[in-house]
Amino acid sequence: MTATTRTAPRTALRHRLAERGIDRQLLLLVPALLAVLILFIYPFAYGMGLSFQPAEGGVLGAYRNFFGDAYQRDTIGTTLQLALPAAFLNVAASVPIAYRMRGRFRGKRLLTTLLVVPITLGTVLTAEGLLNFLGPTGWFNRTLLEAGLVDGPLRLTNNYWGVFFSLVITGFPFAFLLILSYLSGIDPTLERAAATLGAGWWPRFHRITLPLLAPGLATTFCLTFVLAFSVFPSAVLVGDPAGTTRVISIAAYHAAYEAYDYSLASAIAVVMGVVELAVVAAVLGVRSLFYTGSTGGKG
Amino acid sequence: MSWLRIDGVTRRFGGKAALERLDLDIEQGEFIALLGPSGCGKSTALNCLAGLLPLSEGSIWQDDTRLDTLPPERRGFGMVFQSYALFPHLSVRKNIAFGLQMRRLPRAEVRRRTDEAIKLVRLEEHATKLPGQLSGGQQQRVAIARAVVLEPSLVLMDEPLSNLDAKLRLEMRTEIRRLHQSLGLTTVYVTHDQEEALSMADRLVVLRDGRVQQIGTPEELHTRPANRHVADFMGYRNLLPLKVTAVTPDVVTVEGSGLALRGTGVGTLAAGDEVVAAVRPEDLVVGEGGVPVTVEVVEYQGRELAVEARTEQGLRLHLRAVERPAPGDRITVVADPSRVLVFPA
Lengths: 299, 345
Known about the structure:
Protein name (chain B): ABC transporter ATP-binding protein
Number of strands of chain A: 0
Largest interface: A-B, 23 and 29 residues
Radius of gyration of chain A: 26 Å
CATH architecture of chain A: Orthogonal Bundle
Number of helices of chain A: 13
Shape of chain B: elongated
CATH topology of chain A: MetI-like fold
Mean pLDDT of chain B: 90
Low-confidence stretches of chain A: none
Low-confidence stretches of chain B: none
Helix content of chain B: 10-25%
Domain ABC transporter (chain B): 4-234
Helix content of chain A: over 70%
Keywords (chain B): ATP-binding, Nucleotide-binding, Transport
Largest sheet of chain A: none
Distance between the termini of chain A: 56 Å
GO molecular function, one term (chain B): ATP binding
Order of helices and strands of chain A: HHHHHHHHHHHHH
Number of strands of chain B: 19
Strand content of chain A: under 5%
Strand order of the largest sheet of chain B: 6-7-8-3-9-10
Strand content of chain B: 35-45%
CATH class of the largest domain in chain B: Alpha Beta
CATH architecture of the largest domain in chain B: 3-Layer(aba) Sandwich
Keywords (chain A): Cell membrane, Membrane, Transmembrane, Transmembrane helix, Transport
Radius of gyration of chain B: 24 Å
CATH superfamily of the largest domain in chain B: P-loop containing nucleotide triphosphate hydrolases
Number of helices of chain B: 8
Oligomer: heterodimer
CATH superfamily of chain A: MetI-like
Shape of chain A: flat
């Protein structure tokens, strides 16, 4: 055998690996992979395992416990009733505002900043503000009373509406920013072309812009829904944590830190994840029916 | 009275005029080219016509109807965009049918006219594809079909060929001209390519810095440019800063930088004036008793050679030669006085 035939297979192997994207640069992934493994995969698997090891009742005992008890089981419905309308409203309210703001105009940066401020405030401050503003003796009710529009103060805090408003205030900026960036990814010439073809503003929006925006709306809906579904601080602070806003994260908290039933708490957390995944899968399923390719803009 | 009248149309961006008092009368069936370098205001003019930009001043009239106060969707003009602007989520067929559906025409008629338009641009086997699956030339044809299927009173085209390769550009040029004639369209076509404009248009409007420089037929612009800027744009590559030494009714003699030429004056000139002599490279030929120059660069261009040469004083000349001179050769060049245009500087 000659030297050339011996070396040939060795270089070929390296090239074949490189062709599949396997080379030494892959080592750069190691720190990130380790972090994911230690901080995410392991605790996740541990919690999963915990949920199948209740003190009594066999492997599925914790789950049977949760679904067997109406007080626990109903937290799924309670949370969905809060999270779905809140996510829907956040997306629906963001679309017209972002649509109006997609071009360039004076004061756009200021307006964007104002709209985004609630993100930086945090849920607790928002909740405190809501208690002061919407509470029985808050400005809102006092104004209504003074104006003679209502006989007694409207109950807008420490119930469903308090939590709902809080979810809208904190979720809207996320939805708005995401949708604004999706909208600016759509080539503005498309609407101008539609205009020269005789389309007024409404057909331009719903036949051209909306279908191109639909995948972005679906993604935005999923993200704001997941944020709203894991609501905890505002459900306690401006809600009615023992009754109408006993959301699923409160149930998990009670199980873990008041009943010290880590197995049940883990089971609730898993149920939470499954419900979220189901909603996200449904939305993405609908999304796949739409056009998802290039929208011709700057991306 | 003309059919479409553009009357003193002006468009300013932040105080700076992008288009200054454009007056233009368009007859039905005409092919008008707006020609000029980038930033000259030609696209601004087109967008003002289409209604995509509001006017700062002036008005647009079609017969006795004032158009400039109408939104784009009510002007009834078709437009072909430089980027084609095809709707990426709609098939070729739906793209073309869009405008017809906006007019709320009966479904059968939409279908018939869409079919006709698809056939017209020869895209039958691509009708169900999305625009992203088509080549540049095919996308261009969809954009044209989408605009002309409405039988618009005026078709506006914004540099529609600038994204195509050279060969396709020639083919589409003929195609657009063919459609213009066979459908009896009236077309306003924006381009920066003088060759494209000369070959396609019935009349050209040359713009520079937002102002009209000259309006005329291709022949008029080609042989009698109104000023040095139009000459520059019409392929007079040699623009020589010289001085008038003698003026007779027919011939102006100009000198400077080591060369003397006889040419035709444009406008009133007197001896001693600073002028610009404009000569096309193909009108400057190697000949006896002319200006002595040194050859610097020779480019092969098929039937002839493009030569860049310099006079002793360093003035650069572009000319054509049939036989290949070598760089460094000393030759003499001559030009027919009728082909040398002398403009006031």
